[in-house]
Structure formats: C-alpha cells, structure tokens
Automatic annotation (TrEMBL):
<dbReference type="GO" id="GO:0005759">
    <property type="term" value="C:mitochondrial matrix"/>
</dbReference>
<keyword id="KW-0808">Transferase</keyword>
<keyword id="KW-0597">Phosphoprotein</keyword>
<dbReference type="InterPro" id="IPR036890">
    <property type="entry name" value="HATPase_C_sf"/>
</dbReference>
<keyword id="KW-0496">Mitochondrion</keyword>
<dbReference type="GO" id="GO:0004740">
    <property type="term" value="F:pyruvate dehydrogenase (acetyl-transferring) kinase activity"/>
</dbReference>
<keyword id="KW-0067">ATP-binding</keyword>
<dbReference type="InterPro" id="IPR003594">
    <property type="entry name" value="HATPase_dom"/>
</dbReference>
<dbReference type="Pfam" id="PF10436">
    <property type="entry name" value="BCDHK_Adom3"/>
</dbReference>
<feature type="compositionally biased region" description="Basic and acidic residues">
    <location>
        <begin position="191"/>
        <end position="209"/>
    </location>
</feature>
<dbReference type="InterPro" id="IPR039028">
    <property type="entry name" value="BCKD/PDK"/>
</dbReference>
<keyword id="KW-0547">Nucleotide-binding</keyword>
<keyword id="KW-0418">Kinase</keyword>
<dbReference type="InterPro" id="IPR018955">
    <property type="entry name" value="BCDHK/PDK_N"/>
</dbReference>
<dbReference type="InterPro" id="IPR036784">
    <property type="entry name" value="AK/P_DHK_N_sf"/>
</dbReference>
<feature type="region of interest" description="Disordered">
    <location>
        <begin position="186"/>
        <end position="213"/>
    </location>
</feature>
<comment type="similarity">
    <text>Belongs to the PDK/BCKDK protein kinase family.</text>
</comment>
C-alpha cells in the first residue's frame, strides 16, 4: 500500500470554517525565541499501534500542539530574514502568508488542553488544513526564487532552502502523523459525519492493511511495491508525452521489507525514475530496461549510521534563523531523529542507459533550480503553471503533495529527493558514465524498531 495515500487531507474532513487568531509580531518573536523540542520518532509512535483509545488521541493532539507553533514561527522568521525585495516577490510572499495562516489556526488552541473528542476532531481539521495549505510550497518557492534570482545569490538560496525544506519535512511529518493516528482509530467515529466514508478513504476499516502502520510509518515497508507503483505513474505520463515508455526490471532482494515512511520513499523513487525515463527515451534507448537493484544494508552498519557519518549539520538540518535583533540564534536541529534502535536499511541502485550526465552538468545536479532546459522554455512552463493552464506539461504534475517539482522544469527534484533521503541518515550518490548511462545509489536507514505490546485499545 503506497504511503502517500494513507494520510487524508482537508478534503476528506468536514468542511468547517476554522477559528483563527491574528498573529502579531510579538507572537512570532516569542515563539521563535523558544528552543525547539529535539524530536525523535519515539515521540510520534509512543502512543502505540492504532487503533488508539480516546486518551491516546488526546495525548497525541496535545503533544502535536505543543511543538508546531514554535516551528512555524521559526519558518516565518527565516523567511523575514531574506532580503526585503525577495520576500516582496508574490510567490515568496504567498509562502510567508501561508505560514501566518497556519499559525493563526493554531494560536486559538495554544492556551488550552484537548480533553474531549469534539476538540480532537476540530484539531485534526486544523492539521489537515495545515498540510493542504503547504502542499505546493516547493513549486511556489521555486517560482519565487526564479523570478528573484537577480536579488539573491545562488549560495544564499541554497542555504535558505536546505534549512527551510528540511524543516518542512519535519513539520509536515508531525502533522500527518496525528492525522493518520486519528483516521486509523475508532473513538471519534460516532461524532464524525460520514465516518464510514472517512475510514474507507484512509484505509481504516480493513485492519489487514493497517497492521504494519503506526501513523504514517510502515514498519513493514516493501520497497519493490513502491517502485512498481511509481513506475506505473511515471510510465503513463512518459508515454503520454513521448509515445513510449521504458520497462523497469527489479532484482536483488525484491521481497525485502524494513521500517520507513512510504511517502518519503515514493517521492524519491518518483524523482529518480523521472530522470531515468527522460534520459532513456530522449537517447532513443527505450528498449533497454531500467534496472533497479534492492540490496539490504548489513544490520550492524545500519545501527551505527552511514559509513560517511552524516550529521545534522552535514545534512543542512540546523536551524540558523536570525532573531529580530539581527543576532544568530543558537543552532537547533529541526529534524526528527530516528528511533535509537534502528531497523536495517537498504540501498537501491537505479541503472539506466540514458547516455549519462555531461561533466559540465554533473557538477550542478545538486543545485536548486538547476535544469537542463533552456531558460525561455522554463519561464514559459512557469507562466503556464502559475496561470493554472490545463496545457501545463503533465510530466510536471506527477510528484503530488510531497514536492511538486518536475521532470522538466524547476530543477528541485534531485536535491529535494536527497533531502528526504538524508533526513533519517541516508543519502543519494550519483555515478555517471558519460556517453553510456547513469547509476544512482539511494541509501535509506530504517527509521526504527518499534516493540509493540499489543493494541492499546484492544483492537
């Protein structure tokens, strides 16, 4: 079961106007001055396997409420520290306003505890609104920085995005985790209208599909299934544009499973397959299959981290937002650490015969906004996208909520995919044989081993 389909958004919850509170500069300064809670996945799975009793849902909601406002304030502060002319760009200003909106929906809850099912349902609606509001953050930011590129250096853009996008991964994960716990539990169903439909949309009623899930975390994730799903999606769109589609061959250990977050893996695999499909077809090698090898990591290596010893600083996960007096705050990690007892990880190699990456392009594949498309074509695509035209290249729309970057457009796909991989200590490495093809090595660390003592609600 593909992870991105397990978390409903606001379209599934009852449409009800959310209570908001005006966000003042004092609110932002006070919240941004608070130290960020160092999160691990233990914090998100400590309530046990769903279905959860009402008391556990309250605990999850109150914990989520206790940490999200400060994280949103840090993002607002970080955006305000960009040059004024950059923040004035309508796209970047929209992201700033989106964060203000989400904080305004959380402030009314900040002075109270969630102690009944009706409030828990309303709070889950706030979380769904937050997820939906920020679903297109990547593509909107990309357009903004493209238009403001005369006023901010590529180094500054990379520094901001490394921090901002990784922090966004954590914020989104926190919100989606509570939404998933809510929809996979029963106590609220008697108060929810159309509850049967809600549970059906979230795969709630069939426990055989939910048994391996704790919220958005699949403790028995099957990479080969994710790869096949992404192959179908990318292949359909590739065939729509080019008239052909390469095949994908999976070898190694296709039956291997480990604990990870399916939506993260789905986004990464989608981006890698888009690149491989495009290169293969445009070189006329569509009869050569794309080879995907699944190789489990030795358990000892996975438990002690990657061989390169990636740190939060290496991954760009350190918060370096500036305070309102211009002094740099103490660096605090906004990422979520995996469980101390990790599960074995996996390395997935994707090999194509698409001709490889030219030496001059290879040096820039990790740069945000790097694209092999010509500038005039890129701007044309952006104009079509921002205008909501139905003629926008379908290949630009297949990444969904996880990213919104494109095969032939914004140039955020590969660096953002690496951010998802690195978030829990993995990574992506690229080896190109110019004139022949490309090998991409995706390493993922298992996010944790959860020892369960049975369902808390007796389900």
């Amino acid at each position: 079961m593909v992870g991105s389909r397990l978390v409903p958004t606001s379209g599934i919850l009852p449409h009800r106007a959310l209570t908001t509170q005006t966000v003042t500069d004092d609110h932002i300064a006070e919240l941004a001055a608070k130290p960020l809670h160092p999160l691990t996945l233990t914090d998100l799975v400590k309530y046990g396997r769903p279905p959860l009793p009402a008391s556990a849902l309250y605990e999850s909601a109150n914990f989520t409420l206790s940490i999200l406002p400060a994280r949103l304030a840090h993002r607002i502060q970080s955006l305000r520290n960009l040059p004024f002319i950059v923040v004035s760009n309508p796209h970047i200003s929209k992201i700033h306003n989106n964060y203000l909106h989400s904080l305004s929906t959380l402030l009314p809850w900040s002075e109270k505890q969630i102690t009944n099912l009706e409030d828990e349902i309303k709070f889950t609606e706030v979380m769904a609104d937050l997820v939906q509001t920020h679903s297109n953050t990547i593509s909107i930011l990309a357009r903004g920085f493209l238009e403001a590129r005369k006023y901010i250096s590529p180094v500054e853009v990379t520094r901001f995005l490394d921090e901002h996008l990784r922090a966004r991964i954590g914020t989104r994960l926190i919100a989606e985790q509570h939404i998933a716990l809510h929809f996979s539990s029963q106590p609220h169903t008697e108060l929810s209208s159309d509850s049967k439909d809600h549970r059906h949309d979230s795969h709630g009623p069939d426990e055989s599909h939910q048994s391996s899930y704790i919220g958005v975390i699949d403790t028995d994730l099957h990479p080969a299934s994710i790869i096949r799903h992404c192959e179908g999606t990318v292949g359909d769109i590739c065939e729509l544009r080019y008239g052909v589609r390469p095949s994908v061959v999976i070898n190694g250990e296709p039956d291997y499973t480990f604990a990870h977050i399916p939506v993260h893996l789905e986004y990464i695999i989608t981006e890698l397959l888009k690149n491989a499909f495009r290169a293969t077809v445009e070189r006329g090698m569509e009869r050569e299959p794309i080879e995907v090898t699944i190789a489990p990591l030795p358990e000892g290596l996975s438990d002690h981290g990657r061989e390169k010893g990636l740190t939060n600083q290496d991954q760009g996960n350190m918060n370096v937002a500036m305070s309102d007096v211009g002094k740099e705050q103490e660096a605090v990690s906004e990422n979520i650490r995996p469980l101390k007892q990790s599960t074995p990880g996996v390395t997935i190699r994707m090999r194509d015969r698409g001709g490889g990456i030219s030496p001059e392009n290879l040096a820039h594949i990790w740069d945000y906004s790097f694209t092999t498309f010509k500038e005039e074509e890129l701007i044309s695509r952006q104009q079509s996208s921002s205008g909501g035209s139905a003629s926008i290249d379908a290949l630009n729309a297949i990444s969904g909520d996880a990213g919104g970057s494109s095969l032939a457009g914004l140039g955020y796909g590969l660096p953002l995919g690496r951010a998802y991989a690195e978030y829990f200590g993995g990574g992506i490495a690229v080896q190109s044989l110019w004139g022949w093809g490309t090998d991409v090595y995706l390493s993922l660390r298992g996010v944790g081993r959860v020892e369960c003592e049975g369902r808390r609600s007796g389900g």
